[in-house]
Amino acid sequence: MKIWEQQSETQLKIVVWLWAWWTARNKANAGGRVLSVGEMCDTVQYHLNEFAKLNGPNKTRSQVVQPKWKPPHEDLYKLNVDAAFSASTKMGGWGYVARDNTGAVLDAGAGFIQRAASALHAEALAAYQGLSRASHIGMTRVQLETDASNLGKALTSKCLDNSPEGALFRQIYVMMSNNFVSCSILICPRTCNRVADGLANHGVAIPPDEGDVFWCQAPSFVTDLVSGDLPGADSL
């Protein structure tokens, strides 16, 4: 049988098998363990799979541009919020970032969550903290953006008002109605919420006795994420 007369797929299998056999033989001659037939087959299959990835669907998928954060209109501020939550400890962290239509960070914050009943509860706490701060510093027209679709559902309808987190949802309704001229809710992919996610994860590490932390510009640990979100920046 001549290797070069075979189909390309068969050629690759033969070459990989010969290479794997030669490598295993050399290792055995040097005092290493002799591989079984099954182990040799697994080794060959592994490398064939790796070759397939070079020209398979993964290559195409890596070239797909992920959705990015979009600035608000000129007369609005966008408030991205997120939470980190551990179901085992019931603890977590919250984070938010407020930006204008140029993508500039106007305010950001993070804090530790000592107790939350659920991931939804933690997300609602993040929204509450972000809206409270935005109101405190005088923002009147905001877009609240979250990657938690269940939070968006809770804040745009009454369907979860009787849930365990319902009282908090109602507090947020009142705040949105009384403290802002305009306050809309947007749901975004996780790739559009990376800065708030980074802040929430930072909040997990803040000692409870140190209280919440606020910045009037992007803290150093999210500056790269902020830069990646700026209009015109290349997709990561």
Number of domains: 2
- According to DSSP, the number of beta strands is 6
Distance between the termini: 48 Å
- Overall helicity: 40-55%
The chain-level mean pLDDT equals 88
Largest sheet: 6 strands, mixed
Order of helices and strands: HHHEEEHEHHEHEH
- Structural class by sheet pairing and helices: alpha/beta
| CATH homologous superfamily designation of the largest domain | Ribonuclease H-like superfamily/Ribonuclease H
How much of the sequence lies in strands comes to: 15-25%
Work out the radius of gyration: 26 Å
Question: Per CATH, what is the topology of the largest domain?
Answer: Nucleotidyltransferase, domain 5
CATH architecture of the largest domain: 2-Layer Sandwich
- Given as residue ranges, the uncertain stretches (5+ residues, pLDDT < 50) are none
Strand order of the largest sheet: 5-4-1-2-3-6
> Mind telling me the CATH class of the largest domain?
Alpha Beta
Spatial shape: elongated
Separate helix tally: 8
Keywords, separated by commas or semicolons:
Nucleotidyltransferase, domain 5, alpha/beta, 236 residues, 2 domains, 8 helices, 6-stranded mixed beta sheet
Task: Provide a descriptive summary of the structure in words.
- This protein has a six-stranded mixed beta sheet with strand order 5-4-1-2-3-6.
- The protein is built from eight helices and six strands, in the order H-H-H-E-E-E-H-E-H-H-E-H-E-H.
- Helix 1 (8-29) crosses helix 2.
- The chain has two domains: 3-62; 77-229, Ribonuclease H-like superfamily/Ribonuclease H (Nucleotidyltransferase, domain 5).
- The longest helix has 22 residues, at 8-29.
- It is an alpha/beta fold.
